[in-house]
Amino acid sequence: MISDNGEKSNSTRGIPSLLLNKISGLLKEFNLLIYGTKATELLTVQPRDLVPIKYMLISSGVGQTLVQGYRNHLNQERGDEETGWLLMGYREKKHAVVVAAVPSGEFREASSTHVKFNSQAQVVAGRLLRQLHDKLEVLGLFHTHPGRLRHPSSGDYQGDIQWVKKLPGKQGVFGIGTVDHESPIRGEFATKIAINTFSMTGMRFDWFSLASGDSNYVKVPIRWTLGEDLARPLHVVWDAMETHAGEIEKVLAQQTKATCGITQGAAGHQLTLSIPLAGSAGKIIVFIFKDKVQYFFEKNEQLFAVDIQEDKVDRGVYLVLAELSK
Hints:
By secondary structure, this protein is an alpha+beta fold. The protein folds into two domains: 2-16 and 236-324, no CATH class; 24-233, Cytidine Deaminase, domain 2, CATH 3.40.140. It has seven helices and 18 strands. The strands form three sheets. Strands 2, 3, 4, 7, 8, 9, 10, 11, 12 and 13 form a ten-stranded mixed sheet that branches. A hairpin with a 2-residue loop joins strand 10 (197-200) and strand 11. Helix 4 (119-132) packs across helix 6 and helix 6 (238-254) crosses helix 7 (313-324). It is elongated. The chain starts with a strand and ends with a helix.
């Protein structure tokens, strides 16, 4: 049943909604993460006047995300596994600028010798980012090695050499994180120990590029630039996003006018799905949390709670549609 909630929700205050209209291009790019033939065929990059990457810029915010994220990972139960981040940013003519690091996710497949990212969650995350920053591109990957292998492995190469063909300039940037027992620890400060390497608080970060046709990775000089990690705002809703990513994808694919974003609610930031109905019939609003999903119907700036207990977002949306059609 539908009951009057009594007042307009405050969910639109705080962080602006991140609308998701640019779907197909992002799906092509992120599907590539599974390294499948079909995924490779889906991705196309427009020809551009690019030359091989001479150096890469890393925003200070991304650097902080990688350092803190790696440190936290080492202290977790799965700390002996590999983990990683998808790198997004801007490809300039002679260099790459990394301004967003999207986590591999808790639902990643990983061991001490490999990691496969949770691409479903990264598709949703990427859509959110692309709506606000529509020129963002996938630039490469950063992942960790539990041992002391300071460069990508032969297994990394087998996968990477296939999908760099579809990146801007047919070239990507790749980072490797390892525990560092040799370099001096200088408090919470990064120390550059090579043109492509920095060390911080007992962790080492080595950077490389790989272009289509290369027989091996090439060390790429790194530089820092002040700036945020554009993916950082997603961290507050990451658990919900990862838990329900597949369901959200189904709704967005089937309801072409549906959008998803981060809004501010009474309990804090929340992942919010909005599905406009035909004409001026209002819209369905779904607040998505890791362990619960709440459904509402909004019309004429009034919000009504829909009494449906369904944790699967896609099923819940269609139950609401059925309820409204009565």
